[in-house]
Fold each of these.
Amino acid sequence: MSMNRRAVLASLVALPLVPRLALAGEPMVFQTNGVAINGADPVAYFKAAKADTTGNSHRVVWHGAEWHFDSKATMTAFEGDPERFAPKFGGYCAYAASQGYLAPTIPEAWTVYEGRLYLNASLRAQELWRQDIPGNIAKANANWPKILG
């Protein structure tokens, strides 16, 4: 592999960890085209212990974003207690929040810790997050929500 190609690949791996400057008034919830957390069912992380992004035809608008659900039951559970099921830090990368910036997330990089859902930008960010979850939560809480801009 050439040095230039290796450098490009290395930069792509590190890309999710590069700080994203918060523009004035970033949405409270990480969303793409108005859909929260890449269309993943947030309740599935708790009920099925997995990311569920397929066939999520049940929908609810909460905090300015459309949330998708696999079933009426998971949608109803969310509606009954959205603060319990919605990911902390608006579904933005919890590790990035602990470092003082915003980053998007992927459904596969997640952790449920002490009854709360935390999402990460990549599996590498998830690995860094898990090295000190309580310490990272404390740092992210200190940064949140001022990093929204």
Amino acid sequence: MFGNLKRKCKRSEQPEADGEGLYTRLRATALGLNPSEVGLAATDELPRAVAVVMDTVYPAGAATLVAIADGTTSLYVSPGGGTIGAGQHPAVAAATHQLLALAEATLDDMPAARDDHLPPTNSTTIRVLTYAGPYAITAPEKDFGRNRHSLSPLFHAAQEVITQIRLLGDGRSA
């Protein structure tokens, strides 16, 4: 479902030496987000959800979407590359807002997270970071994508954020 990202991961024969390390550091920073340190506080619309971090692993790499309640939106790809700061663009900001609102609405359908490992190959983990700790759900990417999972709408909302980021790269969105 990551489209070009999936193809990019497959095209990369070897991850860039520092690309993998940068990916790992950026992902760890997102997962370790402390809301109070970055000035985030509960709102009427998002009383619990602080961020969504969605990881998908392919045979040759991983992609991670990070969408934070302050509008920060980024996409990291383990072979190296990605987009940082896409949330400043209106279409991405709108999609991020929709994703976070849906994460808030579906949070009770997710178990508390026990770890922050990447999912198995061809699987996706959707994490919702909250003020009380992370929640997460993992399933095969095709189950989310083909609406065979109760949280498929959350996956599709995240995919819409990715689409808007990709359109920026194609010069079709502002």
